[in-house]
Amino acid sequence: MLNRMVELAGRSANGTMSPIDKQALQDEVNQLCDEIDRIAESSDFNKINLLDASLNITLQIGDTSGQVLPVTLAEATVDTILTGIPDITGDDASNRIDTIRDAINTISPPRGVTSARCRTALSTRSTTSMPPPRT
Q1: pTM value?
Q2: What is the rounded end-to-end Cα distance, in angstroms, of the chain?
Q3: Which of 17, 109, 121, 130 has its CA 20 to 30 A from that of 10?
Q4: Long-range contacts: 106-115, Cβ < 8 Å, 24+?
Q5: d(Cα 92, Cα 88) in Å, to the nearest integer?
Q6: What is the pLDDT of residues 79-109, one digit of tens each?
Protein backbone atom coordinates (compact mmCIF):
# COMPACT_ATOMS: atom_id res chain seq x y z
CA MET A 1 0.00 0.00 0.00
CA LEU A 2 2.85 2.34 0.76
CA ASN A 3 4.44 1.53 -2.59
CA ARG A 4 1.17 2.47 -4.27
CA MET A 5 1.23 5.77 -2.37
CA VAL A 6 4.73 6.46 -3.72
CA GLU A 7 3.40 5.86 -7.22
CA LEU A 8 0.43 8.16 -6.67
CA ALA A 9 2.62 10.91 -5.21
CA GLY A 10 4.91 10.63 -8.24
CA ARG A 11 1.98 11.02 -10.60
CA SER A 12 0.74 14.02 -8.66
CA ALA A 13 4.18 15.63 -8.71
CA ASN A 14 4.77 15.22 -12.45
CA GLY A 15 3.28 18.63 -13.29
CA THR A 16 0.67 17.44 -15.79
CA MET A 17 -2.20 16.74 -13.38
CA SER A 18 -5.14 19.10 -13.01
CA PRO A 19 -6.43 19.88 -9.51
CA ILE A 20 -9.32 17.45 -10.13
CA ASP A 21 -6.87 14.70 -11.13
CA LYS A 22 -4.72 15.40 -8.07
CA GLN A 23 -7.78 15.18 -5.85
CA ALA A 24 -8.66 11.79 -7.34
CA LEU A 25 -5.14 10.61 -6.51
CA GLN A 26 -5.49 12.04 -3.00
CA ASP A 27 -8.80 10.21 -2.58
CA GLU A 28 -7.00 6.93 -3.31
CA VAL A 29 -4.24 7.82 -0.83
CA ASN A 30 -6.93 8.49 1.79
CA GLN A 31 -8.50 5.10 1.11
CA LEU A 32 -5.12 3.38 1.37
CA CYS A 33 -4.53 5.10 4.71
CA ASP A 34 -7.94 3.97 5.95
CA GLU A 35 -7.07 0.41 4.94
CA ILE A 36 -3.69 0.54 6.71
CA ASP A 37 -5.46 1.64 9.91
CA ARG A 38 -8.12 -1.05 9.50
CA ILE A 39 -5.47 -3.73 9.11
CA ALA A 40 -3.51 -2.38 12.10
CA GLU A 41 -6.62 -2.54 14.27
CA SER A 42 -7.90 -5.94 13.14
CA SER A 43 -4.79 -8.08 12.51
CA ASP A 44 -4.77 -10.64 15.26
CA PHE A 45 -3.72 -14.18 15.96
CA ASN A 46 -5.17 -16.00 18.94
CA LYS A 47 -6.73 -12.70 20.05
CA ILE A 48 -3.32 -10.98 20.07
CA ASN A 49 -3.17 -7.83 17.97
CA LEU A 50 -0.07 -8.38 15.85
CA LEU A 51 0.47 -4.67 15.25
CA ASP A 52 0.15 -3.48 18.84
CA ALA A 53 3.39 -1.87 19.99
CA SER A 54 2.54 -2.34 23.65
CA LEU A 55 3.03 -6.11 23.41
CA ASN A 56 6.20 -8.17 23.47
CA ILE A 57 5.77 -11.82 22.60
CA THR A 58 8.05 -14.72 23.38
CA LEU A 59 7.78 -17.63 20.98
CA GLN A 60 8.68 -21.10 22.19
CA ILE A 61 10.81 -22.48 19.34
CA GLY A 62 12.21 -25.61 20.92
CA ASP A 63 11.40 -28.30 23.41
CA THR A 64 13.38 -26.83 26.31
CA SER A 65 12.72 -23.75 28.39
CA GLY A 66 15.64 -21.77 26.96
CA GLN A 67 14.65 -22.18 23.34
CA VAL A 68 12.62 -19.03 22.91
CA LEU A 69 12.51 -16.17 20.45
CA PRO A 70 11.46 -12.76 21.80
CA VAL A 71 9.51 -10.69 19.29
CA THR A 72 8.84 -6.99 19.72
CA LEU A 73 5.74 -5.83 17.92
CA ALA A 74 5.56 -2.46 16.22
CA GLU A 75 2.49 -0.31 15.86
CA ALA A 76 1.69 0.24 12.21
CA THR A 77 -1.00 2.87 11.95
CA VAL A 78 -0.88 5.79 9.53
CA ASP A 79 -0.16 8.15 12.41
CA THR A 80 2.86 6.13 13.56
CA ILE A 81 4.45 5.24 10.23
CA LEU A 82 3.57 8.36 8.24
CA THR A 83 2.72 10.85 10.99
CA GLY A 84 -0.65 11.37 9.33
CA ILE A 85 -2.15 11.16 5.87
CA PRO A 86 0.27 12.59 3.28
CA ASP A 87 -1.14 15.43 1.18
CA ILE A 88 -0.07 14.84 -2.42
CA THR A 89 -2.17 17.59 -3.95
CA GLY A 90 0.21 20.48 -3.25
CA ASP A 91 3.24 21.80 -5.08
CA ASP A 92 5.50 19.82 -2.73
CA ALA A 93 4.03 16.43 -3.67
CA SER A 94 7.52 15.22 -4.58
CA ASN A 95 8.51 15.65 -0.92
CA ARG A 96 5.75 13.21 0.02
CA ILE A 97 7.52 10.56 -2.07
CA ASP A 98 10.48 10.75 0.31
CA THR A 99 8.20 10.76 3.35
CA ILE A 100 6.44 7.59 2.20
CA ARG A 101 9.71 5.89 1.21
CA ASP A 102 11.09 6.72 4.65
CA ALA A 103 8.07 4.95 6.16
CA ILE A 104 8.73 1.90 3.99
CA ASN A 105 12.38 1.87 5.06
CA THR A 106 11.39 2.23 8.72
CA ILE A 107 9.01 -0.73 8.84
CA SER A 108 10.71 -3.11 6.40
CA PRO A 109 13.99 -3.98 8.19
CA PRO A 110 12.48 -5.02 11.57
CA ARG A 111 9.82 -7.07 9.82
CA GLY A 112 12.45 -8.80 7.69
CA VAL A 113 14.79 -9.51 10.59
CA THR A 114 12.04 -11.03 12.74
CA SER A 115 10.79 -13.11 9.83
CA ALA A 116 14.30 -14.36 9.07
CA ARG A 117 14.88 -15.25 12.73
CA CYS A 118 11.63 -17.23 12.81
CA ARG A 119 12.50 -19.07 9.56
CA THR A 120 15.96 -19.92 10.88
CA ALA A 121 14.56 -21.17 14.18
CA LEU A 122 11.99 -23.32 12.41
CA SER A 123 14.53 -24.63 9.92
CA THR A 124 16.97 -25.53 12.67
CA ARG A 125 14.20 -27.15 14.66
CA SER A 126 13.01 -29.27 11.73
CA THR A 127 16.52 -30.57 10.95
CA THR A 128 17.35 -31.49 14.53
CA SER A 129 16.89 -35.15 15.23
CA MET A 130 14.44 -35.99 17.97
CA PRO A 131 14.76 -39.05 20.19
CA PRO A 132 12.13 -41.70 19.57
CA PRO A 133 9.07 -41.54 21.84
CA ARG A 134 9.18 -43.66 24.99
CA THR A 135 6.96 -46.68 25.02
Answers
A1: 0.70
A2: 53
A3: 109
A4: 106/81, 107/74, 107/76, 107/81, 110/72, 110/74, 111/74, 114/71
A5: 7
A6: 888 888 889 998 888 888 999 999 888 877 6
